[in-house]
Specification:
Elements: H1 2-5, H2 19-30, E1 73-77, E2 105-109, H3 116-129, E3 135-147, E4 150-155, E5 164-169, H4 174-182, E6 188-193, H5 202-219, E7 224-228, H6 229-234, E8 246-255, H7 264-278
Parallel strand pairs: 1-2, 2-3, 5-6, 5-7, 7-8
Antiparallel strand pairs: 3-4, 3-8
Keywords: ATP-binding, Kinase, Lipid A biosynthesis, Lipid biosynthesis, Lipid metabolism, Nucleotide-binding, Transferase
GO biological process, one term: lipid A biosynthetic process
Pfam family, one: LpxK
């Protein structure tokens, strides 16, 4: 999924169990740049300046304390910010609340899906452990649908209005996906939720077919199945022969402006990095 979103850019994607080793290999292959000058280690690098790596972004990296980092960004799901307040495996938290003190920036995600009171409660919890950290807010903004079997053709979000839908997902928090679909005005929304990263099996496909057939019988209309990009790109061929239309919801992460400034998040990161690198 990241590859498709980053097509046409110079971004590179590394995958592996040892993230430090993956990053080191990318630095060796492509070289790296810094703000002031190209590292002397790159003097014999055959790659162009544009190919060299300017920043490494590590997903879910806060717990990897042995890795040196310049900036720590913590994302909080506004819809389920702290779960049951317990660490894994008793709860969803990967770090104790005290780890918020290490955060350089906090981003509250799905901020448009909760009340102002909920947002204020999240801010209060963050401030309890980190009084000065900048707090930003983000949403997952739906863009359009693409149809499984012909993803080059974009469908308007309005195409599902008044439709009968089955939302199928294997993501960490399916409620956000279903809620956004419901906001688009379909006649009826049903759902089948699987565990995060669930590998779909033939029995799962049979279960999906039966649910679609049930919806068709109940509403006397042909339902549409809707899935996330994440689920689609795990196996693009999986749902091609389902006998029902399958739409993939395409979205983008949008950081909301702060104090009327569209680039406030980028400016905050740059200011923090300049301060860190000047030390």
């Amino acid at each position: 999924m990241l590859e498709r979103h980053l097509q046409g850019t110079t971004a590179k994607i590394g995958v592996g169990a040892n993230r430090a080793a993956v990053a080191s290999e990318f630095f060796r292959r492509f070289g790296y740049m810094c703000r002031e000058k190209i590292s002397s280690e790159n003097s014999n690098c055959a790659n162009s300046y544009e190919d060299q790596i300017g920043a490494a972004i590590l997903d879910d990296g806060m717990q990897h304390l042995s890795l040196e980092r310049d900036i720590e960004i913590v994302m909080v799901n506004a819809m389920v910010p702290w779960g049951n307040h317990h660490l894994l495996p008793l709860g969803p938290l990967r770090e104790p609340f005290s780890a918020l003190n290490r955060a350089d920036v906090v981003v509250v995600h799905h901020a448009d899906m909760v009340s102002k009171h909920d947002i204020e409660a999240i801010e209060a919890m963050v401030r309890k452990y980190n009084e000065l950290v900048p707090i930003f807010f983000s949403v997952l903004a739906p863009l359009h649908f693409v149809k499984v079997g012909n993803i080059s053709y974009k469908l308007s979000l309005k195409d599902i209005s008044h439709a009968i839908l089955l939302c199928v997902s294997a993501i960490g928090f399916a409620d956000s996906f279903v809620r956004r679909i419901e906001k688009m005005g379909p006649m009826h929304v049903d759902r089948l939720d699987f565990s995060d990263h669930h590998p779909f099996q033939p029995k799962d496909i049979d279960k999906i077919k039966k649910r679609l057939q049930k919806l068709q019988s109940e509403f006397s209309a042909v339902p549409i199945m809707v899935i996330t990009e994440k689920d689609y790109y795990r196996d693009p061929k999986l749902f091609e022969h389902l006998d029902y239309d399958v739409h993939v919801l395409c979205s983008r992460l949008q950081i909301l402006p702060f104090n009327g400034c569209e680039d406030s998040f980028k400016k905050c990161l740059m200011q923090h990095l300049e301060l860190r690198l000047s030390v």
